[in-house]
């Protein structure tokens, strides 16, 4: 990573997240996370910000490091919710960041192996004897 995780997104992007006239819980959460140092981000923080496509060039590498350890890691919703949001990132981002795409493809390969191994066992388990 070519950035300092001891800095916040506001510091790294040299920008201030401007208050909105419409202050939903999500907007307030994103404003809060813009000020938080990246080293202190939780899985849920990554999930939220990546889901909003904020700070992707900083947060996707952190998310991929986490997903390499456990592709099914969860934020506050369900197992694999971080991976789900990473997979929803606009394809243009991946075209511009082929090194990150390579890492994502490694994670996807691991997930596919797991699914292909477990799915037949689940189907067999659920079948009446």
Describe the structure concisely.
InterPro entries: CdiI. With 129 residues, the chain is mainly α.
Strand content: under 5%
- The Rg value, from CA coordinates, equals 17 Å
Q: Per the principal axes of the C-alpha atoms, what is the gross shape?
A: elongated
Q: Which runs of at least 5 residues are low in confidence (pLDDT < 50)?
A: none
Based on helices, strands and strand pairing, what is the structural class? mainly alpha
State the domain count.
1
N-end to C-end Cα span? 52 Å
Oligomer state of the chains in this structure: single chain
Encode the helix/strand succession as letters: HHHHHHH
How many helices? 7
Task: Say how many strands there are.
Answer: 0
Q: What's the helical proportion of residues?
A: 55-70%
Instruction: Report the major sheet.
Output: none
State mean pLDDT (0 to 100 scale). 95
Pfam families: CdiI_3
InterPro entries: CdiI
Explain this structure:
By secondary structure, the chain is mainly α. It has one domain. Helix content is 63%, strand content 0%. Helix 3 (43-51) crosses helix 4 (56-69) and helix 3 runs parallel beside helix 5. InterPro entries: CdiI. Pfam families: CdiI_3 (PF18616).
